Amino acid sequence: MKKLGIYIHVPFCRAKCLYCDFCSHPPRNGEKTEYVEALKRQIASYRERFCGYTADAVYFGGGTPTLLSSDQLGGILDALRASITVSEDAEITSECNPATVDRTALTKLRAAGINRLSIGAQSFNDDELCALGRLHNAANVTSTFDDARAAGFDNISLDLMYGIPRQTRDSWQATLDAAIALSPEHISAYGLRVEQGTPFGTMGDSLVLPDENLTAQMYLDATERLEQAGIYQYEISNFACRGRESRHNIKYWKCDEYVGFGVAAHSYFDGERYAAPTDIDSFVSGKFIDEQSVARVDEHEAEVEFVMLAMRLRDGLRCEEYRKRFGIDPAEKYTPRFAPYVVSGHVVADERGYRFTREGMLVSNYILSDVLDL
Ligand code: SF4
Questions:
Q1: Whose CA is nearest to atom 2 of ligand 1?
Q2: Which residue blocks in 311-357 are alpha helix, DSSP H?
């Protein structure tokens, strides 16, 4: 049986955060029910194509999946199990916004089969949360975390953000310390990106952000402080206790197959990449694929993507895995290309392969676009 990752997009949020360009909106009356039914139809349509596959990672992302009831999320999982074997030890994650769920709801979620929670904390500083337009405060993060533990979740991730308007190095370190004090199994730490089409994207100079040097320092602070706490860095932006790395995320970085369900969800399945439409009305009426998005992945594209994503991981590009995938040794092509960055201390090259140093991870985009001719 081949292993497969499943992503399920829930495009509902109570309100939009000021920086967010994800596909989500406040639900209209009856929209959640209609959407869940459409999701179940889409999942059922894959039954035959899933023959020979086992799902070992399922991820409810959004949006705010916990705006659906535990019955609705459980119903989607039941529909999935009717179409594909979900392995007994599957990692089944739901993203969760603080203050959208209480202990009772989390207990039901756990009983419905969800065994990992990813809590969108972002910061433990109330002024920063307010600046981001988040609907919760720091105390809500802590209480949601405690409720999740009490509900039986023994695998919890916290999302944190640096580069927030007016954030200081001290306040970022305080956020890291507050997160560490909760003893989560996993932490994601992303730098804020200002996207076009968001309220932040229209604010121009009135948006006062930490400068490049300060955000770089914040990134290094995260890697050092989290590693000291035993939460090791396994990817550019992701940290985990040993054995608690996100199986779902690793599938993306290893270019393994996954199928996305729901509006705007992307898939990489059977040699093709494709996406669902972003318009919820089209989706609910049964248009599950945006035909324009369907593309067969050719060998060159697959190779570039494999190298680019593997280099995000701390283990980097492994020669053995590359050989297994493409039938040739990567050394002839990549040793000369990485050589200047080995000299500058940004890349380590040895018999296992190539990987970024901590300083290299800071400028990984620049190095990869050079090495891969992007
Ligand atoms: S909660 Fe997440 S998905 Fe929803 S608006 Fe905020 S950042 Fe976007």
A1: 63
A2: 319-326, 331-343
Domains of the chain: 2-252 (3.20.20.70), 317-374 (1.10.10.920)
| 64, 144, 158, 194, best to mutate for ligand 1 pocket (most atoms within 8 Å of CB) | 64
At 271, give phi and psi (nearest 5°).
80, 5
CA distances in angstroms from 43 to 36, 189, 256, 315, listed in the order given: 11, 32, 19, 34
Identify the burial level of 233 via C-beta atoms within 10 angstroms of its C-beta, where 0-12 means exposed, 13-18 middle and 19 or more buried. buried
Q: Give 135 Cα–ligand 1 centroid separation in angstroms.
A: 10
How many other C-beta atoms are found inside a 10 Å radius of the C-beta of residue 319?
Answer: 17
Beta 186-191 vs 238-240: how paired, if at all? antiparallel
Order of all β-strands in the sheet with 353-356 = 317-318, 353-356, 347-350
Q: What is the pLDDT along the chain (374 residues), one digit of tens a residue?
A: 899 999 999 999 999 999 999 999 999 999 999 999 999 999 999 999 999 999 999 999 999 999 999 999 999 999 999 999 999 999 999 999 998 899 999 999 999 999 999 999 999 999 999 999 999 999 999 999 999 999 999 999 999 999 999 999 999 999 999 999 999 999 999 999 999 999 999 998 899 999 999 999 999 999 999 999 999 999 999 999 999 999 999 999 999 999 999 999 999 999 899 999 999 999 999 999 999 999 998 999 999 999 999 999 999 999 999 999 999 999 999 999 999 999 999 999 999 999 999 999 999 999 999 999 88
Q: CA–CA separation, 339 vs 243, rounded Å?
A: 32
Ligand 1 centroid to Cα of residue 95, in Å, is: 10
pTM above 0.85, yes or no: yes
Quick check: 35 and 280 in contact, CB under 8 A? yes
Tell me if residue 122 falls in helix, strand or coil: strand
Helix count (H) and strand count (E) of the chain? 14, 15
